[in-house]
Amino acid sequence: MNPKTNLQELLNKYYAGTITDEERILLEEWYTRWNPEQQVVSPEEIDQLKADVWQSLNVNERPAATKWLWPKIALAASVILCLTAGIYNYLSSSKAQQQPLNAKARKTDIAPGGNKAVLVLNNGVKIDLNSQTNGTVAKQGNVKIVKTANGRLAYAPDDIDASTVVYNTLSTPRGGKYDLTLADGTRVWLNSASSITYPTAFKGNERTVNITGEVYFEIAHNPKQPFRVNFKGHTIEDIGTEFNINAYDDEPVVKTTLVTGSIKLSRNSKSVTLRPGQQSITSLSNTDIAVQEADINEAIAWKNGLFKFKKAKIEDVMRQLSRWYNVDVAYPYGVPKTVFSGEMIKDANASQILDMLTYFKVNYEIAQQNNGPEKKIIIKP
Questions:
Q1: Beta strands at 263-267 and 234-238: parallel, antiparallel or unpaired
Q2: Which of 101-115, 131-145, 248-262, 306-320 is least confident?
Q3: How many structural domains is the chain composed of?
Q4: Do 128 and 54 share a structural domain?
Q5: Can you give the pTM of this predicted structure?
Q6: Can you give the residue range of the structural domain that contains 223?
Q7: Does the pLDDT value for residue 95 go beyond 60?
Q8: Which ranges in 108-189 belong to alpha helices (H)?
Q9: 167 belongs to a structural domain
Q10: Do 22 and 168 lie in a common domain?
């Protein structure tokens, strides 16, 4: 097969979402070595790419399924971003020129977010979890609050029946994320600029929590004690399942995506029941609850350490970057009309993500605000 055609097919599959794990690895490895002046990829180069990829994984032979290797690949591979117009046609054009790195942006680069959260106890005491060593950070009645070795917060009740129920709040700032295990064993992941308010022990006929921002739930099964999540006038009722809620104030819609199990979503006097793979969408301007098939990988990419975009406007992209890098974004020259699809690893400096935009004539500057520590991303033509 003509290597140029082979590369075109890989790019078409990437955009269509049908690319295999092995094909994705080869495409990203090719991208890291791409030379804008090179018009043809030789068969020898493709063979060398294959050999180098598998050698870098330290495996003796190819496994039957490579999906488990993806997180390791993603951390090592360069950021890849595809325009819906077609990356290949652009990169193979004789007019394509690699943009020089922005020295000023490099000087004022922004590190990625990480595990950052504040725990607020029922008496108003605030605990910065970053400053806490592993072990017990507080005690609420008969419940110990423990920071585990892997950076998660966990509630360990000695005796639930004897526990006095009080409420705590865990919140992440912009540039933060955190994992939490509730007293019933339910696991919770908080994205940046998010919060959850919950009891230190679950007693009675139901388990109820309140959230803001974006939160992923893995509910501990208990049919005798349904789990309810309240957010922005919505209520989710669940017995034992996994789902993601995106309810940021700066997003135009609220999205609830069901991964496994079943949930009932209620809003005002209306309700829907979601099945796995479905997503509900609501907005302030409409009281209806729309239901559509979801791209699960896109909805939970943040939890897996990725940005994933599918025909996203640049404002959608930059809102996510703004929260993760704790930075404001300005469009003094207007908002570019570019639409993007693709994946980017979150464990990268802001300039590494933003540099990809420059290949498609969306330029930027990372500027300090008022000569202080605060920074701003300025999108330029």
A1: antiparallel
A2: 101-115
A3: 2
A4: no
A5: 0.76
A6: 114-299
A7: no
A8: none
A9: yes
A10: no
